[in-house]
Amino acid sequence: MLDNLTQRLAKAVKTMRGEARLTESNTAEMLREVRLALLEADVALPAVREFIARVKERAMGQDVIGSLTPGQALVGVVQRELAVLMGADLGPEASQLNFATQPPAIILMAGLQGAGKTTTVGKLAKYLREQKKKKVLTVSADVYRPAAIGQLQTVTEQVGADFFPSQPTDKPVDIALAALDHAKRHYHDVLIIDTAGRLGIDEAMMQEISALHAAVKPIETLFVVDAMLGQDAINTAKAFSDALPLTGVVLTKLDGDSRGGAALSVRHVTGKPIKFAGVAEKMDGLEAFDPARMADRILG
Ligand code: GDP
Asked: Residues in domain AAA+ ATPase (predicted)?
């Protein structure tokens, strides 16, 4: 991931030998390389600008200690600031789900079709059951894709959680309210609501998910986004975060050949923490998102 950044940094490190401190002039070339690599990786321009400014601020005047070369010292700053860009400043609690509510805690999933919502519902249900010992109910409010309800049933049964059946002829809000009523009567700790996704953002879809949000008032509204999408992911993230009070992001398909731009921009664009990363298709392919580890991965 972000191979170009690693390569460009390595190249710049070589040109910066023999200086005792990081200065405006000896870091300029390297920062230019970093900026290009980030833009090539489809990181949103405002995020790139802020990132470069922060790296510059942190690096200037810094003494180069011990056996480090100035280039290596600057790589260290870049690595720490990459982690901050992805939410390291929020602390480890940022990836935790919030359960501080009268049960059931409702989790609403939002995102485009194909982002990985249904798969993530299965993974989350497994994680919550096994790691958090929660009794989980899932429901699909996707009444447009006939296969969607069946797909959710399959993954839910696969992980041993409970499934609330819905009909494509029902209205999404009615489905969600019926599932909530069922969850209350059967003492579920968590209700996860899968929603319809479209191929692109459209008004009707946003209105529908806003109405769902208003009807059930979820404690968590998670925006699921495909890390392979690049610049499109940024536009989608912006549209969803303008329309809905998101509480976090799930970045899927990080195991794929991702250019990394989404991982680096989505926190900046939404202002919300990345809570989980999808790292495989299978049901145990979900990890709590760790910005520092991600920054390590990016820089190889
Ligand atoms: P939805 O339309 O948003 O509900 O998306 P789906 O859950 O149906 O996922 C779309 C495709 O992406 C499926 O083939 C999933 O198996 C795949 N997928 C989802 N998450 C991941 C992931 O983290 N890694 C990989 N490799 N594939 C994933």
From this structure: 103-300
Residue 194 annotated as part of some ligand binding site? yes
User: CA–CA separation, 22 vs 268, rounded Å?
Assistant: 27
CB 90 within 8 A of CB 124: no
pLDDT of residue 247: 97
Spacing, Cα 225 to ligand 1 middle (Å): 10
Distance 169 CA to ligand 1 centre (A): 25
CA of 115, closest atom in ligand 1? 3
ipTM field:
0.99
CB 36 within 8 A of CB 43: no
154 is in an annotated binding site: no
Give the pLDDT confidence score for residue 279 in this predicted structure. Answer: 94
* Span from the CA of 27 to the centroid of ligand 1 (angstroms): 41
Is 252 a known ligand-binding residue? yes
- Which residue, by CA, sits nearest to atom 22 of ligand 1? 253
Which residues have CB under 6 Å of ligand 1?
Answer: 111, 113-119, 197, 252-253, 255-256, 278-281, 285
pLDDT tens column, 262-272: 788 899 999 99
